[in-house]
């Protein structure tokens, strides 16, 4: 007999990729974390209801035993509103996900309990405390979890017809690259941890979708593992998309295997075409001299390239926009995401900027990579904002789309169109035009805490220094 009703909620984000903009569907489901959490409630005793507020309203009156909320920084304030509401109704609330993991004390001001980092190892304790009526405080594992113990996510809970990309498969956690703007290595460690191939393949074989997304930070993590994974993927006859790093994406053998195993799009964090900017954020795996060849190679294998670029590094100048735009259009990058550098709480970039007293807003709503929340250096904030908007307008203009469309190439043309139209609709129409430059008097009530301290000593010192001066 089921004894508990659990209500899992993904709060609404002001982000066009999660809004149902075309055919009432959102481009991506943001639910990977919550589907994973749902699988940790034994089905014989727990019934789970899941709401993604991006596509449907939260049932604020639901009678349930526990509310679980997951949040990234840009929508954590909405998460706190929902948590406050259920707390006022005396329903126990637990929070987790990337933002609460770095801001546990802040999260605890709105919830009974919160989970720092991975949930798998602490979940038995959470369930026992829920049963005993004493769910409280911070749940944090003393080690990283064994990837062989990860259960398949509860895909049955997702409203399938509301997303274009809904099946996200995680095959690994961790990242050795440790860029200063990224949270991955501080949350999941600097070593790749791999799920057993058989588990991954079983999960993919069981999913109904023909197209899946692999949400690892680098699908080409190591040669041996990638060979094994892609070879096993081939007979499943799926199409897949994933992210790769510049260095590993040079590997022709892996590219060929990727194409043969059904890969139709790879996203790459190019971040910048300036070596100095890359160095300033420790993204040393990227070499801009290799970008053009890399794109040609991927196109040669029939794969689309989704290029990710950031602007607002201290090394950037007004020319950075025009040069990047020219590069992206000339090399016919299929899709691009352009972000404004954002110092997410708990990252090294955050501590560096905080120490230099450069952060101009702690309003987390603005931490969506479309607003400027810090004092810029290489480029005036006004120019950064205009340049960033210009990138979207020009890259997704009709002229650019016609130049870039793979008319006589073997790339997936319908996917190309859906993705380009989504980005064009979201950005060119101005749906998400943010407040450009944010300077306000928000204060940081709680200092970020880093789930896993950085491996490098100078980084640990930077974190410690901020804590001492605040
Ligand atoms: C894949 C991915 C995406 C996918 C989402 C996939 C999906 N279906 O969820 C897409 C492409 C849509 C995406 C979009 C964005 N992303 Co993203 N993404 C990732 C990535 C690489 C992996 C996330 C993932 O799927 N993890 C797998 C799940 C299982 O892990 P998890 O969510 O952490 O969940 C575990 C724990 O956190 C915990 N947990 C999670 N929720 C809860 C809830 C409760 C109640 C409990 C108890 C525990 C718990 O338990 C889980 C199991 O252990 C991460 C990097 C990372 N490692 O987090 C960045 C990351 C999460 N993304 C990030 C960002 C910034 C974004 C965007 C804002 C980028 C943009 N400008 O568009 C958008 C926001 C989209 C939106 N509106 O929601 C940042 C977030 C930083 C921050 N502080 O907010 C990250 C951390 C990368 C980085 N730069 O460091 N992303």
Structural commentary:
The chain has 17 helices and 16 strands. The chain is globular, with a radius of gyration of 22 Å. It has two domains: 4-140, Response regulator (Rossmann fold, 3-Layer(aba) Sandwich), CATH 3.40.50.2300; 167-428, Alpha-Beta Barrel (TIM Barrel). The protein has 470 residues and is an alpha/beta fold. Helix 2 (76-88) links the parallel strand 4 and strand 5. The longest helix has 16 residues, at 413-428. Cobalamin is lined by residues 13, 15, 17-18, 28-34, 36-37, 68-70, 72-74, 94-99, 101, 115, 118-120, 168, 170, 182-184, 187-188, 215, 217, 339, 344, 368-369.
Q: Uncertain regions: pLDDT < 50 for 5+ in a row?
A: none
Q: What's the mean pLDDT score?
A: 92
What does the radius of gyration come to? 22 Å
Q: How many separate structural domains? A: 2
Give a quick precis of the structure.
The protein is α/β, with parallel strands linked by helices. 34% of the residues lie in helices and 16% in strands. It has two domains: 137 residues, Response regulator (Rossmann fold); 262 residues, Aldolase class I (TIM Barrel).
Key descriptive features of the protein:
470 residues; alpha/beta; Rossmann fold; TIM Barrel; 2 domains; six-stranded parallel β-sheet; 17 helices; 16 strands; globular; binds cobalamin
Helices and strands in order, then pairings?
Layout: E1 4-10, E2 26-28, H1 32-38, E3 46-52, E4 66-70, H2 76-88, E5 93-96, H3 98-102, H4 104-108, E6 113-116, H5 123-132, E7 137-140, E8 163-165, E9 168-169, E10 172-173, H6 184-188, E11 193-194, H7 197-206, E12 211-214, H8 223-233, E13 239-244, H9 252-260, E14 263-271, H10 275-280, H11 291-300, E15 304-311, H12 319-330, E16 335-340, H13 348-355, H14 381-395, H15 398-404, H16 413-428, H17 457-469
Parallel strand pairs: 1-3, 1-4, 2-8, 4-5, 5-6, 6-7, 9-12, 12-13, 13-14, 14-15, 15-16
Antiparallel strand pairs: 10-11
Helix pairs in contact: 8-9, 12-14, 13-17
The structure holds cobalamin.
